[in-house]
Amino acid sequence: MPSLFTLSIMEEDRAAYTSAFDESAKSLRPGSWEGRIRSRFGEVRWIEASFQPYAIMGGAVRWDGVIVDVTERKRAQERLSERERHLRAVAERLPGVLYQRVLHVDGSVTYPYVSAGVKTMYGYEPEEIMRNPALFPAGIVDEDRAEIGRAHV
Asked: How deeply is 141 buried, as exposed, middle or buried, from its count of CB atoms within 10 A (0-12, 13-18, 19+)?
């Protein structure tokens, strides 16, 4: 018979919860799980559980653990993700290329973000530029390369 706590876990999240405890019991290693519960007042809350198993007499396992309400963090992450999706949608409609360039201490350059406009202008997929930053300036004509290099430093 499931405990009241287990029954409070949203049905879609129960399998992951059970799996986390099963794995912890088999390995006797610490575990963690993040999922949703429904409070007795009907409100859905996000929780994060961390637990340490201990073998006790007779082959049973006891866990010491902590459960933290992470609802506000999850809501903030969702708001941030929504803003990110919105900005990406705007960036994809802009003519030209929107990018984020990072000059690292060692002098190397990376592009964590490159908009889809790079395909039209340079013929590369954004992922290609992000994987191989040297491709991006490869499309710049030689006489402009020095000026652009000075502007980016």
From this structure: exposed
Among 93, 129, 95, which residue's Cα sits nearest to residue 109? 129
pLDDT in tens, 60-102: 999 999 999 999 999 999 999 999 899 888 888 888 888 888 9
User: Six-digit token pair at 50?
Assistant: 């961390």
Proportion of the chain above pLDDT 90, given as a percent: 59
Give the torsion through C-alpha atoms of 29, 5, 34, 57, to 10 deg. 0
CA-based nearest residue to 31, from 19, 47, 14: 19
Is 0.70 surpassed by the pTM of this model? Answer: no
Q: 10 φ, ψ to 5°? A: -55, 135
Helix (H) or strand (E) holding 140: none
- In the chain, the amino acid numbered 78 is E
